[in-house]
Every structure is written in C-alpha cells, then in structure tokens.
Amino acid sequence: MPLPKLPSRLATVLDLDSIEPAKPVVNAAPKTLQPALPGLKAESSAPATAALPVGTVPGSPSKTATVARLPAARLNEPSPKSTKKKAANQHAARTGASSRRAGSTKTKIFVLDTNVLLHDPSSLFRFEEHDVFLPMMTLEELDHHKKGMSEVARNARQVSRSLDALVENSEVIETGVVLSKLGNKDASGKLFFQTTTLSSELPLELPVGKADNQILGVVKALHERHDAREVVLVSKDINMRLKARALGLPAEDYFNDHVLEDSDLLYTGIMSLPEDFWQRHGKDVESWQQGGITFYRIHGPLCHQFMVNQFVYFEGALPLYAQVREVSGKTAVLATLRDYTHAKNNVWGVTARNREQNFALNLLMDPDCDFVSLLGQAGTGKTLLTLAAGLTQVLETKRYTEIIMTRVTVSVGEDIGFLPGTEEEKMLPWMGALEDNLDVLNMSDADAGTGSNDWGRAATMDLIRSRIKVKSLNFMRGRTFLNKYLIIDEAQNLTPKQMKTLITRAGPGTKVVCLGNIAQIDTPYLTEGSSGLTFVVDRFKGWPHSGHITLQRGERSRLADYAGDVL
Predict the structure, then answer these.
(1) Residue 338, Cβ neighbours under 10 Å: how many?
(2) Mean pLDDT score, 455-462
(3) What is the phi/psi pair of residue 371, to 5°?
(4) How far apart are the C-alpha atoms of 137 and 12, rounded to whole Å?
(5) Does the structure show a pLDDT above 50 at 427?
(6) Averaged pLDDT, 362-390
(7) Which of 497, 548, 553 is nearest to 523 (CA)?
(8) Measuring CA to CA, which residue among 233, 245, 196 is closest to residue 115?
C-alpha cells in the first residue's frame, strides 16, 4: 500500500528552503525514505514511518542528528524591496562578508563568532536584510568575558543587554527575532539562536571540546541543511577562517568597522593643484585682506573637490600656498598661510622644515581649529611640532591653561608588569617620546653640548613640567577638560569607541590633537582600515573647526629616514 503523507511539521523542519505541500510517495515498498519536498536529499536507510519525532532526521541507527528549528517561510523570504540591487556586490565593504555565489538574490545566514561581538557590540545590526545565527558556544563565551572593567568586558555586557532587549516579550524565539525591533531600521533580517543540538562530523584532528571547533560544527551542520542558501561564518580570528575554508565552508572577516578598504585612499588634507590651474580658475578672481591674511575667491570646476580647511599648493610661475576656508559649488575662498619656515615665525624655537610641517603648524596655531589630526611615519615631527605649538599657546599667549597628554598603554613586546607610584609615575615609561622632545625644545643651539647655563635650563624644564600633565586612558570617563591642550599620542592603537570617549571629554576652549602612524598598530584585531585614528580622520574631514595633515618626509636623521624606507 502507498506510504502516508509526511507530517507538515516534519517538512518544515527538514527543508528550510521550500514550502510546498508534501506529496504522497507512489512506491509501494521503498527501502529508503524518499524526499517528499524538492531539494531534500535522501537520507540513509530506515523504515518508513510517519511517527517521527519533530526535529529528528532519519539517519544512522547509531547516531541521531537534530536540526535547528528555523522557520522555512522566513529563511526563504526574498530580499525586501527597499534593499538596493547592488547590495549583493557591495556587501563585502558594507556588511562584513562578500557574496560567493554570483547572481544569488536569496538572503544569507551569517554565523557570528564571539570575537566579532566583542570587537563591535553593534555587529548584530550590520547585516542589512540577511539573517544572523548565534551558536550556543558563542553565548557561552560571551558569559566568560562579561566580568571585569576592560573594554572587552564592557562590550560583552553591551551585547548581552542588546540580546535581552531583543528577546523580551518574544514567546517563541525558535521562529527568530526581528532585528529591527530596537529601532535599527537597516537590519531587516532576523536573529536566530541555536535551540537544539546541531551535530556534524568533523575531522578527527579537530578536538570536539574546543569552542572554535564546536562553532565550526554548527556552521557545517547548517551548511548541509540549507542547500539553497549560503551559510557564512564571520570571524576576526584568521586561524578560524582558515580551518573553515579547509572544511569547504564559506568564511569572511568582519569588514563593517573598516572606514576604508585601502589605506592609500585616506584623506591627506593636502591637494596639489594642476599646472593649468590659473588658466582655468584665474578669471574674475576677487581678493581682499583681513587680519594680515589675504583671501581669494576663485571660480572653476576644481572648486567642488575642495574641502574646508584643506591645504592646496601650486609650485609654478605663480606659486600659491593656501588653505580652503569656504566651498560653495564651483566657488571657493582661499586664505594665504603664515610662513613658519622663516626663523622670525618660529614656534618655541622650532621652524618648519618642509611644506607639510608648515601646513601642520598653521593648523596647530589656529585658535578656530578645535580638532587636529597628524599622521606620518616615524621621524616626521608629529610630537615635536605639537608640543612646540602647545607650549607656545600655554606659556606665551596663555590661550590654554595646561597641556594634557595621554596614550594607550599597548606594549610592543612582553609586558613589564605592574608599575609603582602615582598615575603620572605609572605613565612615565610610556611617555618616552614626551621626555625626548622636551629635551630638544629646552636646548638652544647656543648652549647645546657646552654644559653652560645648566641651571637656567633646569629651571625652565621645571616650569614646563608644571604645565604638562600625563593622564591614563583608564580614568577618562566622565571628565571634562576646560581650556586644555589635549594631546592623544599613538592614536592608531585606539578603537573608534575609545577615540569617541576621549574626544567627547573636550569642554569649551579645549583643543584636541591626535597623533599616530597607522603602519604601527599594536592592538589585536585592529587594522589600518578599522583604527580609531582612521575613523576620526574620515569623519572630521570638511568640518570648519577641524584639520588634518599627513606628514610625508622624515626629519629625524638620515639614518632614520633610510631605515624607514628599506626596512
């Protein structure tokens, strides 16, 4: 006699890619359970029966494989109409994983590793129309990292709070939780938890008890049960991604925190004008003087590419070194610069040695510029110029009351352990650059190396030290700096969240200067594209009260310059 129809609940559990009613099997005495739904693979030999437990796949008699209770209707939904058609091609740069199936229009299932959530607590809502799956081991590892006062512990607690808010008032989480529930309109997919055991055979060389391997087992099980949809592992762990690809599983890095795909595209703050600049922009030029500065209003097709506070230069028959003050369509206002390469305009005895240093000093000495970022390789003069400008405006012009310097305490090699003393004494080993540059600024050419006037230099150094405070990042929350000159050194080792915490400490009259070299990142999981320094450079460009300069040429010594090029 023909087999009875399979239960509709069983069809939902077994095939998550299609919702067609089960059709009766015409074979009279089959030895293998025939798939009643299109796309469902035949399972191993087992007696045909309709009284199968819900969520159980007929298989080997010695091992029972269970699948996640994910709704077929949701997992087979097409992309929302509001999603742009090019989202699939640009998904790698915008959400965190690239499409491996060209032309595929179905939504994907992204399985998140724990380090992604610890790196970016808002990563749950960064996958647009696609669904997010959290293995049980990911939740277990979140629980292990939630204790403590570190940045990782804070991120773990934030993720836990977000998950709790998502599942609140959700009676059945097996059907998925809408990610836009908390107001994140860009996240139109659903969040699924692992509510049942997902088993899949892994190579014997991979220990079953390791957390990474358990997550890989979940990804493999989902990949086997969703033929029509792409299941992608998202992890910041390179070895985790390598093992996944060795098993034939799609794995991607998390790219949503990357400001730029290529660091060469980072805003430099400088533009070289073409040779035909005056021929195309020299007509109807208006000029006037105000406060000792000459202003030019020019018109031309290049003006719309300018950004406010960007520096432009032309080294031709009519040389021009100017700063963009206003941009309106094809009209721009340029202002001439103060020449800090001349000795009469020295800043605490320091003069600019190249074009970029001259641009940087114009920003550092500008009272209307509240935020300055300086990038450059070792020896380009970032710290020296910043300290010279700070001492001049603190001790001479009295524009600021004191200098506050801070940096992230990330070791290049092995950690030396706990340090004795007060907060400033603990930070002194990290402030070697401050001490070195203060020695340079306190030494004049007349008495350098002669040993004369040592008492006067010591008294000056004591006065300088009384106006410079060294603070730790650990105690910055809740503080407000009034009329301070805040220097953030080695800013490339800060995350975007830490950078936001520091910059928002600035009160009225405070100037913030960020220094760093994105080629020397020591913080784990941070890259040139995801560094907090790259983040603020990209976000602050074009703001009328901020400026950025990328220093190009090293001025420390010929040895340092050569080593930077060949090593």
Answers:
(1) 14
(2) 73
(3) -135, 125
(4) 25
(5) yes
(6) 92
(7) 497
(8) 233
Buried b (16+ CB within 10 A) or exposed e, 557-567: eeeebeeeeee
Predicted local distance difference test score (pLDDT) of residue 321 = 92
Look up residue 541 and give its amino acid: K
Query: For 120-133, how does the pLDDT look when each residue is reduced to its tens digit (9 = 90+)?
Result: 888 899 888 899 99
Say yes or no to pLDDT of 74 above 50. no
pLDDT at position 430 is 62
Q: How far apart are CA 410 and CA 406, in angstroms?
A: 12
Residue 347 gets which letter from DSSP?
B
CA dist., res. 375 & res. 514, Å (int): 8
CA terminus-to-terminus distance, the chain: 80
List pLDDT tens digits, range 2-35: 545 544 443 333 343 444 444 444 444 433 333 3
Closest CA to 524 of 101, 187, 238, 286: 238
What confidence tens digit (pLDDT) does each residue in 254-269 have?
A: 887 666 665 667 899 9
Residue-wise pLDDT for 215-256, tens only, equals 999 999 998 888 888 999 999 888 999 999 999 999 998 887
DSSP reduced 3-state for 99: coil
Positive or negative: CA dihedral 337, 341, 342, 343? positive
Strands (E) across 167-283 are located at 177-178, 190-193, 231-234, 251-252, 270-272
User: Using a CB cutoff of 8 Å and minimum separation of 24, what contacts does 114-117 make?
Assistant: 114/138, 114/141, 114/142, 114/145, 114/211, 115/235, 115/236, 115/237, 115/525, 116/234, 116/235, 116/236, 116/254, 117/142, 117/155, 117/156, 117/159
- Domains in the chain (CATH in brackets) are 1-66 (no CATH), 72-80+100-252 (3.40.50.1010), 266-336 (2.40.30), 364-566 (3.40.50.300)
Q: Which of 532, 523, 541, 529 is nearest to 504 (CA)?
A: 532
Contacts (Cβ under 8 Å, ≥6 apart) of 261: 93, 255, 529
| Rounded Cα–Cα distance for residues 360 and 70 (Å) | 57
- Please give the Cα distance from 109 to 133 (Å, whole number): 7
Q: How many whole angstroms separate alpha carbon 472 and alpha carbon 476? A: 7
**pLDDT tops 50 at residue 509:** yes
